[in-house]
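Problem 12. The chain below contains 291 residues. Write out its predicted structure in token notation.
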Amino acid sequence: MSNKKINLEKLFSDKIVSDVTKYQEKYGFDMGTNKNSTWNNTADAFKHAYMQAQLSLLGGKHFAKFLGDRHEEQGNKRGQPASENNMDRWNNQQGREIAREIIQEYGIGAVIPFNQRVSDIIADKINQRINEGKLITNPNDTRRYEDLVKGNPTGGASPIEERPFTRQEIGRMTPEEFQANESIIMEQLEKGRILDEKVDYDIQFPDGCYYTREDIARMSAKEYQKHEKDILKQMEKQGIPSEKDLPKGEKSGYSKSQSSNNSSSGGSSTDGGSSDGHWVTINGNHVLIED
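Solution.
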């Protein structure tokens, strides 16, 4: 057995550079050669934004910022010019902002588990920002990272605003985390910006075959047994929503399929019970009541 240590940081960095090369072939942005392939050019900007977006989605923006800042501090100790430090920090912030956008647009449930589809969404958003001139692709750019994070006019990028916390996020916070974010939470609460988490279930289940708590409660024992595998799979990936969590007037994929079956057969395939029993929801738990 080899005692050679695995450098996870280097493996992750190499994977990022490999992804940047792949997306450069797709989007055609500027990229150098050999050791300078991702240095002080558009590929460099893409790399920093891409890495920070991924780290933010995987571990949170504070975790991503900590690693990004530590990397730049190490570079400063090796004599990194201030202009390069400014460029990297700017693009790191853009990556964290992209992660915030993705969560707002797709819901946190849509980026778990992390997969190639999420990476492609990140890359597409970065390329869009490159085309809009929002990333710094040359150290000589006069825009300052400090102005970006403070929301001052930059001439290029939009001011960054803290994304609203959800009620569920606040409920999951430790006392220490709540205290650290209390001023932001109170301000957002005053402005009415604290909302419930929204999950786009059609993104996780493109065929619309998902279940609500009410669907499960109406199932007979045999019906639940038939669908149990899919229900548990959905619960593991993103949870079971209530009907009120769905868009107004929208039905779950399961309800739609049942309605379709009823129409085609001329009768009802689900009556909320059976000779074996029926399921009810008590305090959020699904319980079989024997008939």
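Discussion. The longest strand covers residues 278-282. Students who got a different answer should revisit the alignment rule from Section 12.3.
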